[in-house]
Specification:
CATH architecture: Alpha-Beta Barrel
Strand order of the largest sheet: 3-4-5-6-7-8-9-10
Bound molecules: NADP nicotinamide-adenine-dinucleotide phosphate
CATH topology: TIM Barrel
CATH class: Alpha Beta
Helix content: 25-40%
CATH superfamily: NADP-dependent oxidoreductase domain
Number of helices: 10
Number of domains: 1
Length: 337
C-alpha cells in the first residue's frame, strides 16, 4: 500500500565527527492520545516507507513495542541496523550515575538493540512525575538546574560512549546559559541537542549557538504539536499551521501547511522529527522534503514570522519557590536558581 520514498533521496546531515544521519526523522511520542500499538505500527510503516531516523524515549512507554518492530524489520531484511539512526533518552528520575546506565540498559533491551545512535539527557532537571499528570502537578523534591548534578549525569553518558553502547550523546531542552556552564566541562561533546523548533518558535540564538559549535539541532514539535496534551496548552499559543504566512505559502505549493513547516525546517538546517500515526501524513512528511523546495523569499517570510511562542513550557518541572515556567528557560541570560 505504501508508495515508498527512496532513502537515498532524503538529504543527510553530518555530525561533528563526520557521521551522516537523515535530515528528517519520525517522532514516537503519542501525546497521551495514541496507543503504543498505533505508534509501533506507524514505525513499521515508516521503515517500509523510507524513514531511517526514529526518535524514541524511555518516558514514551512504547519502546518494547517499537523494539519488536525493529527486530522484525532486521529479521526480514527490510533494513539493516546500521542503516537506521535510533535515539533514546534518559528520563528525569534516572539522572543519578548508576541509574543512567540502568535506563540505557532498559531502553536497549526494550528496543532489542546492541547500541543507540544518540543517547539524550531528556531534560536538565532531576524530578519525577507520573505519566499524564496535569500542569499544576509538582514534585516536592524538584530542584533548579545544578551544574554538578548535570555533569554527574553527563559523565555517565560519556562512559556509555566509552562502553560502545551509544555512538553519540546529546542534550535536550537546554538554554545558552546552561550550555555555557557545561560545555567546557564535557569530555565528549554533545553531537546533537533536541529543542522545540517550529515557525512560531525559531529560537534563532540557540539555533545559531549550536550550529557554530557543530552541535546538530534536532527540532521537536516541528508542526507546532497540534495534538499535544492539554497540560501543554495555553490560550496565548500560536497555531503554526494557521499562521497566515504558512497558509499562504502552503496554497502556493498546493500542500497542507504542516508540510511547509517541515520544508522550512530542513532548508534552515535543523532535523525535524514530526509525529503521526497516519500513513498519509507520515509519508507526505517524508516525501515533501525531497521535492518542491521553498524559495528564498518564502524562507525569509517564515523567518520574519517568528512569534517566540514556546509551546512545551515544562510547568511540571518547576521547583518550590520558582515564579513560573519562564524560570526553566533562563530568560534573563543567567541560570535561574
Ligand atoms: N526532547 C523533548 O523534550 C521532546 C518534546 C516533545 C516532542 N519530542 C519529540 O518530537 C516529536 C514530534 O513532536 P510532537 O509530536 O510534539 O509534534 P509535531 O510533530 O509538531 O505534531 C504532531 C501532530 O501533527 C499532526 N501531523 C503530522 N503530520 C501531519 C500532516 N502531514 N498533516 C497534518 N497534520 C499532521 C499529527 O496530527 P494527528 O494526531 O491528527 O495525526 C500529529 O499528532 C515527538 O513525537 C517526540 O519524538 C521531543
Amino acid at each position: 500500500m505504501i508508495n515508498p520514498v527512496d532513502p537515498s533521496l532524503v538529504p543527510q546531515r553530518t555530525l561533528y565527527d563526520g557521521t551522516k544521519i537523515p535530515a528528517i526523522g519520525m517522532g514516537t511520542f503519542g501525546s497521551d492520545k495514541y496507543t503504543s500499538d498505533e505508534i509501533s505500527s506507524a514505525v513499521a510503516g515508516a521503515i517500509r516507507g523510507g524513514y531511517r531516523l526514529f526518535d524514541c524515549a524511555s518516558v514514551y512507554q512504547n519502546e518494547e513495542q517499537i523494539g519488536l518492530v525493529f527486530k522484525d524489520a532486521f529479521d526480514k531484511g527490510i533494513v539493516k541496523r546500521e542503516e537506521l539512526t535510533i535515539t533514546t533518552k534518559v528520563w528525569n528520575d534516572m539522572h543519578a550515575k548508576r541509574d543512567v546506565l540502568l535506563s540505557l540498559a532498559k531502553s536497549l533491551r526494550d528496543l532489542q538493540l546492541d547500541y543507540i545512535d544518540i543517547f539524550f539527557v531528556h531534560w536538565p532537571f532531576r524530578n519525577y512525575h507520573a505519566p499524564g499528570v496535569d500542569k499544576d502537578a509538582r514534585d516536592p523534591n524538584s530542584r533548579p538546574f545544578n551544574v554538578d548534578e548535570f555533569m554527574e549525569t553527563w559523565r555517565a553518558c560519556e562512559r556509555i560512549v566509552d562502553m560502545g553502547l551509544a555512538k553519540h550523546i546529546g542534550m535536550s531542552n537546554m538554554t545558552i546559559p546552561k550550555l555555557e556552564a557545561v560545555l567546557p566541562l564535557c569530555r565528549i561533546q554533545p553531537a546533537a541537542i533536541e529543542m522545540e523548533l517550529h515557525p512560531s518558535f525559531q529560537q534563532p540564538e540557540l539555533f545559531d549557538y549550536c550550529m557554530e559549535r557543530n552541535i546538530m539541532p534536532i527540532g521537536y514539535s516541528p508542526i507546532g504539536s497540534p495534538s499535544r496534551p492539554e497540560r501543554d496548552r495555553t490560550s496565548d499559543d500560536v497555531v503554526d499551521i494557521e499562521m497566515p504566512e504558512i497558509v499562504e505559502i502552503a496554497k502556493a505549493h498546493n500542500v497542507h501547511p504542516a508540510l511547509i513547516c517541515l520544508k522550512w525546517a530542513v532548508q534552515r538546517g535543523q532535523i525535524p522529527i514530526p509525529f503521526s500515526v497516519k500513513e498519509k501524513n507520515y509519508m507526505s512528511n517524508l516525501r515533501c522534503i525531497t521535492e518542491d523546495p521553498l524559495t528564498d523569499e518564502e524562507m525569509e517570510m517564515i523567518r520574519k514570522a517568528d512569534k517566540n511562542c514556546r509551546l512545551i513550557k515544562g510547568h511540571v518541572f518547576l521547583w518550590e519557590g520558582a515564579k513560573d515556567w519562564r524560570d526553566l528557560w533562563d530568560l534573563d541570560g543567567t541560570i535561574t536558581k
